[in-house]
Structures are given as structure tokens and as C-alpha cells.
Specification:
762 residues, alpha+beta, 5-stranded antiparallel β-sheet, 23 helices, 15 strands, 57% helix
Length: 762
């Protein structure tokens, strides 16, 4: 039984997959057929007896796979509307449709080239006919058609016609205008269709959509045939009654709509025409009433679209991160408070004296003589042991001071003093180590807590979502065969576009990423950078960011003090929104300094790429260096982060040598004296914010380059900036000149220069 049920379930899944595959195959054909029908309605529709903008507007605004079928339908509608007779207006419109299609076929992906081709051809042909005796009205009407068509094309590019919104309303207006100009005996197809659609929306509970459709479709009916103005008024009354009184309740909605139609019949002039109006309205109401009940189930007016960012989820995640941040911060504070509250052992050298007395003198027969009768001399002799023990770590009999020469157990006294001092020193070292570990632990908790708080704040304000673009991007990836798990296109506080697409684990080549950036940018109507790829637990996330205004050009050069190993380390890279440059100088020279410098630079770069601020990164690097080994470790931290959209530069220095900024051809040094990271429990760093622009330089140097002071560096930078030299060349010039100066002074040190120049992004 279980096996048969499993086979049946597999069979159902295979059948569902086959049905979905057939639907996917038929969908493109259905879209094109729908485009032909909409184009035909747009070509047929005439507003106020003279204007025909719908057909050309749809060709300008429809998607790449639909504009050509739409143009064919529009051309057919223009031809059939005149029953095969070509007027000058029809000829102008047909030429405009052909020009618009040709422009889009030739690769015009934006609205402007296609609009210039189509609308320009329409006005140009009309002017030719007007100068040839066609009349000035032809040129004026054609110019009006061109303006309206361009506006419709712009609207359709912003709002897809297949999704609820302004685009769908434009398609409905074209259909209403086309049907409004048709009359079959006593039947008015435009009135029937509008009544059925409005009642359908009211029955579904979509009151706002029904009112919007009523306003747009009513205006289209009046523009197609002014004699239908009474019908538009009656339908408006009926829709308002149904939407306000009984939205989403089938029978009550039909009753309210019918009552509104009867009230609207009072607007009919002459009164005898009311019977024709009521006949067509009743046909529309009957069509909706005959629909299956499942078709009229109420649903929310606004459904979450595929890939739309959910503010609730963002808020929940931000709240969770904030709670974790507060918990970690509270944990660090609790550990510090408990440490301060507990009693601490204040052991000094007197503990060594007491322990020696307890282990040796307490059972000695001369205890009363030494520690009572001659207490002052004995204590003075014990105090004299301190420098001997601290200098050599051990005591011999010959080193006993004169006050202790009367001791009858000199060898035992030396052994007891040595053991007591060794125990005292080990306990002191253990206490210092434990305190250092506690400080490092609480510092790390505090830094991570602050970082989580920053990330939670960023997640709590993800930006303004753009659901239409999110849906189009999701559809694009679905067409590629990789439907996204999540897709969100947002605008940040500065109006910059960002897109995040989460897919099943997928590998992309550099060419594929560049192509994806181009296609997603075309959909979002922005120029996007090559996406950042994040992979984790079977998922791949592509982070698209708008292409910045500026770009950074890096250069660096270095020279070791001795040999080939330098204690200086440089990291230069660009994150999605900023250019980062890091210079770390390990304490001393040679291999140990190189380990500290490279460790600090590598950790700082990783933390910056992960979204940490410079201050938080410095705190975590400080902990890592402090706990790296038993030997003292330290490194200077010098970094600059430049926002490539605004040019705002943030500098952070901890123990680093002064840096240099070249702005407008003028050089100035930045940075004051501070301690390196890894020395103290906290970080004594300095932050500064400056503004840079195109052509400016930022230069970070190690202290070995400033052996003769910063004066010559500033002059050299002014000359190099005036000549427009590349950053790589400037760095080499500075290092070579500093090496020559260091050889003259006889004070060799590692020399490094890192240079960044801002250029306009093309």
C-alpha cells in the first residue's frame, strides 16, 4: 500500500511538472497573441474623432518580445478602422509604427531612440503632407499623437502592462476606446465590457482598483464617443456604490451595483436612451453573475510580488540582531562588574617573607630570638633578599646579608626563599595573564556587539523597495532557468539602486557576471557594477550596486630595511561602494615585524569587507595581536576609506605615521601621534573625515619614509600631482628617494608608500 501511494505521488509530481513545462512553452506565444490583440485595439481606438496615440505608444513601451506583434496588430487596426481606405492620418501612423519597430530592432533598448524614430517620423511625414496641401490640421494632430505616444511609452516602461498599475490601466483605456466606437444594433460593447470589469473587481473586494478602472475607462468611453458620457456617469455611480457599500460580498455587490446603475439612469439625456443603457448594463451584470463562484473569491488588493522585500522580515531580523548585540554588550559589562566587585589578592614581596617564615622558621628553635627579640634586624635582612631574588631569580648561601648570618640553617633558608619567590612570581604572572584574557574577552564581546548593532541598524532600514523592478529581475533569472529564492531591488537614502538576488548554489564566470550586470541594469534602468558574489550553505547571493561616479587607481612600493622581508604590509581593494587602502607597520624589522604587520593588514581587510567600521576592525585586530603569542606584538594601523559615490574619505590612524592628501594641487599632512594596536587593552585611534574629488591623491607612508621629516615628501607630491603622474610611479619615487636619504643618516628602517588617486568613472 505504501509503495503504491509513493508511486502515485511520484506520478502526480511528474504530471504537474509536465503541465508546468507545457505552460512554460505556451506562455511566450500567449504573450505575443495578447500583444497583437492589444495593438489592434490601440490602432482601432480614436480619441475625440482625431487622435490615435495608443498603437504607437504601445510599440514604444512594450517589452522586447512583444513590441513587434503589437505593431502588427496596431497596423491592422489602423487599416481596418477605415475599412481599407487609407487616409493621410493612417499613412502617417503606419510610417511611424514602421520606424519605431525598425529602431527597436536595430538595438534601441531605451525609450529615447525609439521615440525619436517613431514620433519624429510621424511628425515629419505629416509636415510633408501638410506642405503638399494636406492642411495644417494634419500636422497639429500628428504632433499631439506623437506627444501622447511618447508619454504612454514612458509610462509603460515604468509600469509593466501585465501587472496591476498604470500600465494595465492604459491597456484597458485602449480597449474601452476601441469598443466604445462600435455599436451593434442596440448593443454597446464598450459599456458591457466596462460594467462587467468594474463589477468583477468590486466582487473580488478590490475597491480601489475598481474605482481607478471606472475613472480611466469612463474617460476613454467619453473620448471615443461623447454620446456615451451618460453611460460613463452611470457606471461611475454604480461602481462607487458597490465599492463603498458591499465590496467583496457577491450578492450584495451585485445589488449595490445594479442600484447604482438605476440611479445613474437619471443622468441619461434624452430619457428614452436610458433603456439602451440599462440593457447593456444588465448584460454586463449577468455575465459577472454567471461566473463560477471560485472566480469571485475576494483577495487582498495588494499581493506581495515575487522578490519583493518584506519590511516585517527585515524588522524582525534587525530586532534579533539588536537583541544579540545588547546581550553580548551586557555580558561584557557583567564580567567587568563582577571582576571589580570580587576581592583581589594584593600580593607583594611581604608574601614571600611570610611564606618563608611559615615553611622554615615556624618550627625552628631560634624562632623567638629572630622574630621577636631581633625582629627589626631579621625583617631588614629579609627585605634585602628582594633585589637579589629579582635580579638572579635564585639565592645562594654566600649571598645572605649580614642580618641573616646568624641563621643556623642557611642552606634551608636559601631554598625556602627561592621556592617562595618562584611561587610568588608564577602566581603574579598567572594573575596578569588572567586579567589580560578577561580584558581581551570583554573587548571582543564589546566590539562584536557594536558591529552587530551597526548591522542591525542597516538591516532595519534596507531602503525603499521597488516591487516592479524586483519582479522583473526575478522573472529574468527565472527565464535563465535559475528561479531566485529571494530578489529585492531597493533605493538607499541617497537614491542609489541596489539589487540582491539569492539563488541555489551556482558558479558564474567573469563574463557571465558582467553580462548579468548589464541585463539587470537594463531592467532597473541604471548602470550597475559587476555583482559581488557571496556563497554560503548551498546558496549564492549576487549583490548588484549602482556604478559609482568615481573610481580608484592604486599604487604602492616598498623596501625592506635589511634583506628582503619588510615589516610593512599594504592592502588595496574596492568594496561595492568604497575604495579601501590599508598600511600596517609591524614593530621592529625582519620576520617578526612582518608577521605582525601582515596579520594586522589581512584581518583589517577581511573585517572591512564584511561591513565592519574602521574603529570596530581596529578593536578586534588589537585583541588578535595581544593574544597572538607570549611575545609582545604590535603594529600601526593606517587606513583610508573613500566613498566612490560622494568622494567622502574617512581616515583612521592608530600609531601610524602622518599621511598626505593632495586636494586641488595643494598638499597637507594628516595624523597625530598615537599608540599602535596590540599594545594596550584598548585602541587609541584617531578618525577624521575629509572630502576628495576627481584628480585628488591620498598617500599613506610608514615611518621609515619620514626619516628626514615630512617636508620633502610634501614638495615631491606637489610636483608629481602637477605632472599628473600615476600612483605607482609616485610610490616608487617616494620610496627610492627615502632610501637614499636613510642611507645617508645611517638609520635603516622598512620603507613603504601606498598611493590612491580618484578618477572619473566612465
Amino acid at each position: 500500500m505504501t509503495e503504491r501511494m509513493g508511486l502515485a505521488a511520484v506520478g502526480r509530481q511528474n504530471g504537474q511538472r509536465a503541465a508546468l513545462a507545457r505552460r512554460a512553452e505556451l506562455r511566450p506565444a500567449a504573450r505575443r497573441l495578447a500583444a497583437v490583440a492589444v495593438g489592434f485595439a490601440g490602432g482601432w481606438a480614436v480619441l475625440y474623432g482625431a487622435l490615435m496615440p495608443f498603437g504607437l505608444g504601445f510599440v514604444l513601451g512594450f517589452a522586447e518580445d512583444c513590441f513587434a506583434p503589437c505593431a502588427a496588430g496596431a497596423a491592422l487596426g489602423v487599416l481596418l478602422h477605415g475599412f481599407g481606405a487609407l487616409s493621410l492620418r493612417s499613412v502617417c501612423m503606419l510610417c511611424a509604427l514602421g520606424a519605431a519597430v525598425a529602431a527597436r530592432w536595430m538595438g534601441a533598448r531605451t525609450l529615447t531612440p525609439a521615440a525619436l524614430a517613431g514620433c519624429g517620423t510621424l511628425v515629419g511625414v505629416a509636415l510633408c503632407f501638410a506642405f503638399g496641401g494636406g492642411g495644417a490640421e494634419l500636422a497639429l494632430y500628428s504632433a499631439a499623437d506623437a506627444l501622447l505616444a511618447a508619454a504612454m511609452g514612458f509610462c509603460l516602461r515604468q509600469f509593466a502592462p501585465e501587472k496591476p498599475g498604470a500600465g494595465m490601466l492604459l491597456v484597458g483605456a485602449a480597449a474601452a476606446a476601441a469598443l466604445g466606437s462600435v455599436q451593434l444594433w442596440q448593443l454597446l460593447p464598450g459599456v458591457i465590457a466596462c460594467a462587467a470589469l468594474e463589477l468583477y473587481l468590486c466582487s473580488k473586494g478590490q475597491a480601489k482598483a475598481a474605482l481607478a478602472a471606472c475613472a480611466v475607462l469612463g474617460a476613454a468611453l467619453c473620448a471615443a464617443d461623447p454620446a456615451l458620457s451618460f453611460a460613463a456617469s452611470g457606471l461611475a455611480c454604480a461602481t462607487a456604490a458597490a465599492a463603498v457599500l458591499a465590496p467583496g460580498r457577491r450578492m450584495e455587490t451585485v445589488a449595490a451595483y445594479a442600484g447604482g446603475c438605476v440611479t445613474g439612469a437619471l443622468c441619461v439625456q434624452p430619457p428614452g436612451s436610458a433603456f439602451q443603457y440599462l440593457l447593456n448594463v444588465c448584460i454586463g451584470i449577468t455575465a459577472v453573475a454567471a461566473m463560477p463562484a471560485a472566480w469571485l473569491v475576494p483577495e487582498p488588493e495588494e499581493k506581495p510580488q515575487a522578490g519583493q522585500a518584506q519590511p516585517q522580515q527585515y524588522s524582525a531580523a534587525a530586532t534579533r540582531l539588536e537583541q544579540v548585540s545588547q546581550s553580548l554588550a551586557s555580558l561584557a559589562e557583567t564580567v567587568n562588574d563582577v571582576y571589580e566587585t570580587l576581592p583581589h589578592r594584593r600580593e607583594d614581596f611581604h608574601w614571600v617573607i611570610d611564606n618563608t617564615h611559615d615553611t622554615l622558621c615556624f618550627n625552628c628553635g631560634r624562632r623567638d630570638t629572630c622574630w621577636k627579640q631581633e625582629y627589626a634586624a631579621t625583617l631588614e635582612g629579609m627585605e634585602a633578599l628582594r633585589p637579589l631574588l629579582e635580579s638572579s631569580g635564585g639565592l645562594e648561601t654566600a649571598q645572605l646579608p649580614g642580618q641573616l648570618s646568624r641563621c643556623i640553617h642557611p642552606a634551608a633558608l636559601c631554598a625556602a626563599a627561592n621556592r617562595s619567590f618562584a611561587l610568588y612570581r608564577s602566581r603574579k604572572e598567572a594573575r596578569l595573564h588572567a586579567e589580560a584574557m578577561r580584558t581581551a574577552l570583554t573587548e571582543q564581546y564589546s566590539a562584536v556587539a557594536e558591529a552587530l548593532g551597526v548591522l542591525g541598524e542597516q538591516l532595519g532600514r534596507p531602503g525603499d523597495p521597488e516591487p516592479y523592478k524586483s519582479g522583473r529581475v526575478a522573472d529574468f533569472f527565472a527565464q535563465l532557468g535559475t528561479p531566485p529564492q529571494e530578489c529585492a531591488v531597493t533605493l538607499d537614502d541617497l537614491g542609489r539602486t541596489h539589487a540582491a538576488v539569492t539563488l541555489p548554489r551556482t558558479r558564474f564566470s567573469a563574463q557571465e557576471l558582467a553580462a548579468l550586470a548589464g541585463e539587470v541594469g537594463r531592467i532597473c534602468r541604471r548602470t550597475l557594477e559587476v555583482p559581488q558574489v557571496l556563497s554560503c550553505k548551498g546558496m549564492t547571493t549576487l549583490l548588484f550596486s549602482e556604478k559609482p561616479v568615481l573610481r580608484a587607481v592604486f599604487g604602492m612600493a616598498g623596501a625592506a630595511a635589511r634583506g628582503s622581508i619588510s615589516g610593512d604590509a599594504v592592502q588595496q581593494f574596492c568594496s561595492p561602494a568604497a575604495a579601501q587602502m590599508i598600511l600596517c607597520d609591524g614593530m621592529g624589522t625582519g620576520r617578526p615585524a612582518a608577521v605582525d604587520g601582515n596579520l594586522a593588514a589581512e584581518l583589517t581587510a577581511r573585517l572591512l569587507k564584511a561591513g565592519f567600521t574602521a574603529e570596530l576592525a581596529a578593536r578586534l585586530v588589537n585583541v588578535a595581536l595581544a593574544l597572538k603569542s607570549e611575545d609582545e606584538s604590535g603594529a600601526t594601523l593606517d587606513l583610508i576609506s573613500v566613498d566612490l559615490y560622494t568622494g567622502t574619505a574617512r581616515l583612521f590612524k592608530a600609531g601610524a605615521a602622518p599621511g598626505f592628501l593632495v586636494h586641488g594641487g595643494r598638499v597637507r599632512a594628516v595624523g597625530d601621534t598615537s599608540l599602535p594596536v596590540g599594545i594596550l587593552g584598548g585602541v587609541n585611534g584617531q578618525s577624521r573625515v575629509v572630502h576628495l574629488t576627481v584628480g585628488d591623491y591620498a598617500v599613506l607612508v610608514s615611518d621609515g619614509l619620514l626619516v628626514d621629516g615630512p617636508g620633502w615628501v610634501a614638495k615631491q607630491l606637489e610636483l608629481s600631482a602637477a605632472a599628473g603622474e600615476a600612483p605607482e610611479k609616485i610610490a616608487k619615487t617616494l620610496v627610492e628617494t627615502a632610501r637614499v636619504r636613510a642611507q645617508k643618516t645611517g638609520r635603516p628602517d622598512d620603507i613603504t608608500a601606498a598611493v590612491l588617486r580618484l578618477e572619473k568613472c566612465v
